[in-house]
Design brief:
single chain, about 375 residues, alpha+beta, Nuclear Transport Factor 2, Chain: A, Glucose Permease (Domain IIA), ten-stranded antiparallel β-sheet, five-stranded antiparallel β-sheet, 18 strands, about 20% helix, globular, binds zinc ion
């Protein structure tokens, strides 16, 4: 789906089926203390880590016709005055909107230029795990959003999101959080459960985000994209035979095909930095064997791994459907730290609302 395109490939406007009056409220907020510290820290880390490889398009700027979003003032009692992190968080922006059309049209109407494109894509990458973005977004759904703009709009980050779906009669929440030992931050629900699914047998264990899922309708995408830094080791998810390497490199970049011996599934790994010399066709490797490094080669505009599965009959398979998946849940110190951050973000998103009740004990659920 189009909202999940790699950022650098997003067209400025999606075909909107509706028009969108939206109300954005501007609210002064308080961020500070522990949660603010972690958020700010993460932002600083992200600024240096995120690739600047994306191509910025010149977007026409739609002038807001009413006050829409404004920088948030740091006014909380637990604010750390003048700390670097707090200074960063002062630039957070809050949006509250009653959806009267597509999300994208709403954002595009009220936020200038490229920022609306990127914000829409980032929203989609979270919400795609909740419901069908084409069918389930309804007029008068309620959206609350807190995000950190960036000098380069490609680098903006959603910090927290509340979405109330009328069709599903359900409220959803997402909070950005980086576990202590994790290389990347991810989005978690109010109970500290990660919103994205993960593959139990995965080619990359630590990655930033699934930026595009498999989609055979509309804008076709034959696999899933892991946003991940160049040079990240790829391991064979299953015992496999190396089938071929580095074919059609103009499109695929450096690439690798494995045959999973137990299932007969063929797996393609595209846009690699390199295939390891030991990964020669005909060789059989055990699950967990390092075979390549992620990259940004071939027709690719940002560092990522494209992972694509074909069944015995050549039919495309969705890794999140045919393979075992799980939702990670925060535990121990991470869970405690998350709650602090979540509550701070909630105070900003819903000013005046008391802190939520404590959540369930951490665990891990598989399905
Ligand atoms: Zn892809």
């Amino acid at each position: 789906m189009s909202v999940l395109r790699p950022i650098s490939n997003i067209s400025r406007r999606q075909p909107g089926r509706l028009k969108i009056p939206l109300v954005f409220l501007v609210i002064g907020i308080a961020i500070g203390g522990l949660g603010g510290y972690y958020l700010g820290q993460e932002l600083a880390a992200q600024a240096s880590a995120d690739s600047a490889k994306s191509q910025t398009q010149n977007a026409s700027i739609t002038k807001p016709t009413e006050p829409v979003v404004q920088p948030v003032a740091a006014v909380g009692p637990d604010d750390r005055p003048q700390s670097k992190e707090t200074e960063l968080l002062k630039t957070s922006r809050r949006i509250e909107a009653s959806v009267k059309s597509s999300l994208y049209a709403t954002l595009a109407k009220h936020i200038e230029g490229r920022e609306a494109d990127v914000l829409n894509a980032h929203l989609g990458r979270i919400m795609v795990w909740w419901f069908n973005l084409r069918r389930d977004v309804l007029k008068n759904d309620q959206l609350r959003l807190l995000y950190l703009p960036a000098e380069n709009p490609e680098d903006l980050r959603i910090l927290a999101l509340h979405y109330k779906s009328r069709k599903l009669n359900k409220s959803f929440s997402a909070y950005y959080f980086k576990p202590e030992a994790a290389r990347y931050g991810h989005y978690y629900d109010k109970d500290g459960q990660e919103i994205e699914l993960r593959l139990v047998q995965t080619p990359v264990k630590q990655y930033d985000q699934i930026t595009e899922r498999m989609n055979l309708a509309g804008r076709r995408h034959n696999g899933i994209d892991f946003k991940v830094d160049i040079g990240t080791p790829i391991t064979a998810p299953f015992k496999a035979r190396i089938q071929r390497r580095n074919w059609s490199t103009r499109l695929n970049g450096n690439c690798l095909e494995l045959l999973y011996l137990d299932s007969g599934i063929h797996a393609l790994f595209l846009h690699l930095d390199k295939v390891l010399p030991a990964a020669v066709p005909g060789k059989v490797v055990e699950a967990g064997t390092e075979v390549a490094h992620t990259g940004n080669s071939g027709r690719s505009t940002a560092p990522h791994l494209h992972y694509e599965l074909h069944g015995k009959n050549g039919k495309l398979l969705d890794p999140f459907v045919v393979n075992e998946t799980l939702h990670l849940k925060l535990e121990g110190q991470d869970a405690a730290r998350f709650k602090v951050q979540r509550d701070k973000l909630d105070k900003i998103l819903v000013p005046g609302e008391s802190t939520r009740e404590s959540s369930k004990p951490p665990s891990e659920s598989r399905r």
